[in-house]
């Protein structure tokens, strides 16, 4: 798609939308270090839900999910079920308890709950690693979109997009990003749904609710072109599907930038309602993504290409935009769609850069290296860490190791094998101690990368712990390690056990 030259109207629309965000960000520019690091202040239940949804709607959701469904059909629904199911898990198991505990970041929780600087540092390193992997996936999406917009090759599109993100983060700060998140969600939902409705109408399907209309298109694909996207496990085994689904679920419940949203709500009830609203807003887009994939396959099959060509597979990550172009959706509407995709990748990257930077500046620099650091020095370290993290992610994104959603799934596997067990046992088992969680998180890091580390020597390791789906077997092992080591070493202080019983699981809700 980069060979067709620059797309003027989409560029103008994308630039206009991004500029509006930057202006709002500048108006609300952060001057306090705490605002820069911790995603702003309370913005209401629905606002919090919209913030959760917009924070969640990354390039993987907006672009990558449809791309995988386009290539793998039913198998890719594991992403839809896993990601939405993760929020249900959060709602049921941890949202209220995390708010009651009252710490600002995931490493802060681990450090305080387990009373261990080593555990805090490991948790911070894991948070930085998760952010880095996640950003690489977003940058791949940005590189492809900017390449299409400006008629550039992928590398130059990536550099242009990365430069825009870094400029925004440095100038606006996190307070601007947080307040923009409600507007971001409005842009995302409109830009995703309106072109889809036009596409469904032009293809002759039920366009008022294309989320229903594409079901007939699936039947047409199977009947007229023998393309069966709904066949279960045609592109993977039952174990692979369940492992991927489970990993995405527990990974969602362990992502640092998702967990941090609960620290800025005033009480437990608002924390739970924010998750419920966020789940509703997320489902609106997830319900729509498969329609783009099905319509794309239908248009290609009608043109004599029942299976995607090699070039089409390479561009599968932006099948949402390609399907709009193939369906001759008006160019201004394609521009709106591109603006939504850009916002999804752009602001997710910005949020993750700040989450990763806060893990270094707050949890390592301030908590461990320099406890007497001033707000100014903390801010300087945070911005420096942001630039370093962005530079590393951009270099890694030059040769992305997989599709957007697949790269993102690796970050979920790391979160599911480390932070999720630490939070789960930290909240629900008072006997878990620092020695146990250190051993558990180190085990989880090894298991997450068992396939590339040991897969060639021990093929069974690659089968049991696939890179994108390792938490099905990995998370239970990590939980077992934490339990065994905790039982063999001294218990945590009695004061912490009483705090968990009285404050975290008690009825002392502050409203």
List keywords for this structure.
single chain, mainly alpha, 0% strand, transmembrane helix, transport
Structural overview:
The chain has 511 residues and is an all-alpha fold. It is 77% helix and 0% strand. It contains 24 helices and no strands. It has helices at residues 8-27, 33-38, 45-56, 59-72, 77-101, 106-114, 117-150, 154-203, 210-225, 238-252, 256-259, 268-286, 289-302, 310-314, 319-326, 331-369, 375-397, 404-417, 419-428, 434-448, 450-454, 459-464, 471-488, 494-504. Helix 3 crosses helix 8, helix 5 runs parallel beside helix 10 and helix 6 crosses helix 19 (419-428). The longest helix is centred in the middle third of the chain and has 50 residues, at 154-203. It is globular, with a radius of gyration of 22 Å. Mean pLDDT is 84; it is low at 30-40.
Q: How would you briefly describe this protein structure?
A:
With 511 residues, this protein is an all-alpha fold. It has helices at 8-27, 33-38, 45-56, 59-72, 77-101, 106-114, 117-150, 154-203, 210-225, 238-252, 256-259, 268-286, 289-302, 310-314, 319-326, 331-369, 375-397, 404-417, 419-428, 434-448, 450-454, 459-464, 471-488, 494-504.
């Amino acid at each position: 798609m980069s060979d067709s030259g620059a797309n003027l109207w989409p560029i103008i629309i994308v630039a206009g939308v991004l500029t509006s965000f930057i202006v709002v960000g500048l108006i609300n520019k952060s001057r306090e270090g705490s605002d820069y690091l911790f995603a702003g202040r309370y913005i209401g239940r629905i606002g919090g839900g919209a913030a959760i949804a917009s924070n969640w709607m990354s390039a993987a959701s907006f672009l990558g999910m449809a791309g995988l469904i386009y290539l793998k059909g039913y198998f890719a629904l594991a992403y839809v079920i896993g990601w939405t199911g993760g929020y249900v898990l959060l709602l049921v198991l941890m949202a209220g308890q995390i708010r009651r505990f009252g710490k600002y970041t995931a490493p802060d929780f681990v450090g305080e709950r387990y009373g261990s600087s080593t555990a805090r540092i490991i948790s911070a390193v894991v948070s930085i690693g998760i952010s880095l992997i996640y950003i690489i996936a977003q940058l791949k999406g940005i590189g492809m979109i900017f390449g299409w917009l400006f008629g550039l090759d992928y590398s130059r599109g990536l550099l242009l997009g990365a430069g825009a993100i870094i400029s925004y983060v440095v100038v606006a700060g996190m307070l601007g990003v947080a307040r923009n998140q409600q507007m971001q969600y409005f842009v995302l939902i409109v830009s995703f749904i309106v072109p889809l409705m036009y596409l469904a109408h032009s293809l002759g399907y039920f366009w008022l609710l294309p989320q229903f209309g594409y079901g007939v298109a699936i039947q047409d694909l199977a009947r007229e072109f023998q393309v069966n996207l709904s066949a279960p496990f045609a592109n993977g085994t039952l174990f692979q599907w369940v492992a991927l689904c489970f990993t995405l679920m527990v990974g969602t419940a362990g992502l640092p930038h998702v967990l941090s949203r609960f620290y800025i709500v005033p009480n437990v009830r608002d924390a739970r309602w924010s998750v419920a609203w966020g789940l509703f807003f997320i489902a609106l887009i997830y319900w729509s993504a498969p329609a783009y994939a099905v319509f794309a396959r239908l248009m290609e099959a009608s043109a004599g290409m029942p299976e995607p060509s090699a070039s089409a597979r390479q561009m599968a990550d932006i099948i949402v935009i390609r399907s709009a172009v193939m369906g001759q959706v008006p160019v201004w509407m394609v521009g709106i769609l591109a603006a939504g995709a850009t916002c999804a990748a752009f602001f997710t990257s910005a949020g993750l850069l700040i989450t990763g930077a806060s893990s270094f500046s707050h949890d390592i620099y301030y908590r461990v290296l320099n406890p007497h650091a001033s707000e100014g020095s903390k801010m300087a370290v945070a911005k420096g860490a942001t630039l370093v993290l962005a530079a590393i992610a951009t270099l890694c994104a030059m040769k992305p190791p997989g599709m957007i959603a697949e790269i993102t799934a690796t970050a979920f596997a790391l979160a599911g094998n480390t932070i999720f067990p630490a939070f789960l046992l930290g909240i629900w088992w008072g006997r878990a101690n620092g020695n146990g969680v250190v051993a558990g998180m180190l085990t989880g890091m090894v298991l997450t990368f068992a396939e590339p580390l040991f897969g060639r020597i021990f093929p069974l390791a690659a089968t049991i712990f696939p890179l994108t789906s390792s938490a099905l077997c990995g998370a239970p092992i990590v939980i077992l390690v934490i339990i065994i080591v905790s039982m063999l070493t001294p218990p945590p202080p009695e004061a912490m056990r009483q705090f968990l019983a009285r404050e975290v699981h008690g009825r002392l809700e502050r409203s």
